[in-house]
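Same chain as my last thread, 385 residues:
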Amino acid sequence: MTKQRRFTREFEDEAVRLVRMSGRTRRAVADDLGIGLSTLTRWLGRAKDLASGDPGANGQTPGDMAAELKRLRRENEVLKQERDILKRATGFFRQGGRSMRFRFIDQAKEAFPAERLCRVLGVSTSGYFAWRSRPASRRQRQDMVLLAHVRAAFAGSNETYGSPRMTHEVQANGLAIGRRRVARLMRENGLKARQKRRFKRTTDSDHANPVAPNLLDQDFVAAAPNQKWGVDISYCWTREGWLYLAVVLDLFSRRIVGWAVGDRLHSRLPLAALRQALTMRQPRAGLIHHSDRGSQYCAMDYQTELQRHGILISMSGKGNCYDNSMVETFFKTLKTELVWRTVFYTRAEAAQAIARYIDGFYNPVRRHSALNFQSPIMFEKMAAN
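reply #2:
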């Protein structure tokens, strides 16, 4: 008996043994072994005949069995390929249209035979090759140009813009395009942001320092810069440990006017951010400064700095996160667009990335829906004019 025949017979015996000993159904065993249910049933019948002394009525030789097994495996491979084709083509089916199916075939032909792709997707092979040789339409050429701009803007936004902001960004570059077209181009080309989450408590309100009343009272509207500031502290995980970030946000333009990072939660961290904001903006007396009741903001040196500049002190109600939602929104944006998508090995690496994000993207570039899709700096310039 040759090695191939011996392997085929051993494979058949193992299949029969699995049906008899495993307690599983014939179909489940057949699926696991990659053979047809009818083949497995025939093998079981032959095993029963051999056990009873009957050689069987089909008269198949071991060579016939090997050929049958090879054919069944080939059919099984084709079925698996067809299943994979349908999985990958789901998005194209949702978009509809014969041309979309041709586009999918053109993209997938390196992984699957073109003829098989055409058969599974219900189009003719000749139709596909005719589509390939046909010159691109005017709209298709426009899509190619627009997609290049969309890709560039998507990369420039650190892969964070959805279709609303992306539409304003591309339109600002002088291109006439609507939101639906932008959304389609982004969807078809996999331009989608990702998110993760990590939580750490930063507010310590269990202290004996005095607490100020809530002067802001969730009125986040300001008529001009330096009328209302919101402040808070957040965090960023690195392989060295936590890096803490304190910010000062102008409620008029959502601009970060002061920020500082450190490896510890103490009053010097938000104080450094506050002093940077005071130096850069030089606000007049009467500015409302709103924070939570954390010990860092209730500390004597921080309160003294505020009083020295004639700043009105406002603090959130106990346990009310909505009183400081403007700054919380900034932190969520920062984490969604940078922190949750990046692995930082050192605190210095994280600090540099945060600096680039705030000073290089968020303040001068990022479009805010609440600012009529203008950046904070541009919004302030337009208000000044």
